[in-house]
Amino acid sequence: MQTVKGAPVPHSKNNRRILFVDDNPNFLASIRRLLGSNYSITTADSGEQALELIGQQEPFAVIVSDLKMPNMDGITFLAKAKDISPNSVRILFTGYANLENAIAAVNNGYVFRILTKPCQEEDIKRAVDASLDQHRMLRAHSELEYLRKIGKAMEGIIFGFSALVEARDPYTAGHQRRVADLSAVLAQRLGMDRDRTQGLRMAAMVHDIGKLYVPAEFLNKPGKLSSAEFSIIKNHSQVGSDILSPVEFPWPLSEIVLQHHERLDGSGYPQGLRGDQLLDEAKIIAVADVVEAMAFDRPYRPGKGLDAALDEVEHNAGTLYDRDVVQACLNMFRNEGFAENWT
């Protein structure tokens, strides 16, 4: 079992876009000479022009403005800039005589840092670099919040699918929930990262959703199924994958559901995949699915018990089931008391 971890995205000049606003053309020219080789610099000679640029272009990482400008002062401009581009970090240039107003702007959240004129070149560079760091942090926070919202929306869809299954077949709903609980803890024991574990749990919550299209009399039939009946039931993996595939989940849920009855030696269904062709998530659900199905009662037969279920996966570890997954499962039940809370 291997977990792939994402690599950080390097910062480029495009991530260092800075807007300087000042009514003094000499100052703007000096800024371009000072910073132009390392940063993407845009200049404006008034607050009005700067607001137009902010509205028309890609967001600026940092916006730097002089305080005293005709028509629109720097504090007013930066307050408006915040409304248009809230993740841009704002710096205010001011003279000592205006320091009180500038501090008020900081307290009101319009300004990240104040620079007093005259200002040394190194002070400008340090302020710009600190502001870029702040912008990266703000952007990362915004992306995290977005992902959280997406995650909640995805959970809502999954729970909606699960509710459909429960309305038709309460047994399958309970089975899916227990498989999801066991799969998520197995993933944690195996070192799978938090995001993939969340996707795994969601896939497990609906891994049998394809059974919505299997006649109930087949699912609950006591005794042996005919070959035709079993063929229809086996199709539930493909049907479940087809139900999920039109939804753009941030995880490969349809593939996980498609593979949850595949086996390491190629004896599973529907595609006869083997070994490394199987997703790690599918390998985990395969073990959790078998253990739950054998341990608990089904409508057409009593459960065989947890010991029998664990013996099954232990006996077939490395042949049908992933050895690492099986070992983690055995340890959880035999040494950690997982069964006490697994109902």
Topology:
Elements: E1 17-21, H1 25-35, E2 40-44, H2 47-56, E3 62-66, H3 74-84, E4 89-94, H4 99-107, E5 113-116, H5 121-168, H6 170-189, H7 194-205, H8 216-219, H9 227-234, H10 236-244, H11 253-259, H12 280-295, H13 306-315, H14 323-334
Q: Nearest-angstrom radius of gyration?
A: 30 Å
Indicate the CATH architecture of the largest domain. Answer: Orthogonal Bundle
Low-confidence stretches: 1-14
Task: Please report the first level of CATH classification, the CATH class of the largest domain.
Answer: Mainly Alpha
Helix/strand class: alpha/beta
Major sheet summary line: 5 strands, parallel
Q: Report how far apart the termini are.
A: 27 Å
Mean pLDDT: 86
Widest β-sheet, arrangement of strands: 2-1-3-4-5
Helix content: 40-55%
Find the count of extended strands (DSSP E, 2+ residues). Answer: 5
Number of helices: 14
Q: Report strand %.
A: 5-15%
CATH topology of the largest domain: Hypothetical protein af1432
CATH superfamily of the largest domain: Hypothetical protein af1432
H/E element order: EHEHEHEHEHHHHHHHHHH
Overall shape: elongated
Integer tally of domains: 2
Keywords:
55% helix; disordered N terminus; 5-stranded parallel β-sheet; 2 domains; 343 residues; 14 helices; alpha/beta; Hypothetical protein af1432; 7% strand; single chain; elongated; Rossmann fold
Give an overview of the whole structure.
This protein is of the alpha/beta class. It folds into two domains: 13-141, Response regulator (Rossmann fold); 169-341, Hypothetical protein af1432 (Orthogonal Bundle). 55% of the residues lie in helices and 7% in strands. The protein has helices at residues 25-35, 47-56, 74-84, 99-107, 121-168, 170-189, 194-205, 216-219, 227-234, 236-244, 253-259, 280-295, 306-315, 323-334, and strands at 17-21, 40-44, 62-66, 89-94, 113-116. A five-stranded parallel sheet has the order 2-1-3-4-5, sandwiched between helices. Strand 1 (17-21), helix 1 and strand 2 form a beta-alpha-beta unit. It is elongated, with a radius of gyration of 30 Å. The two termini are 27 Å apart. 35% of the residues are buried. Mean pLDDT is 86; it is low at 1-14.
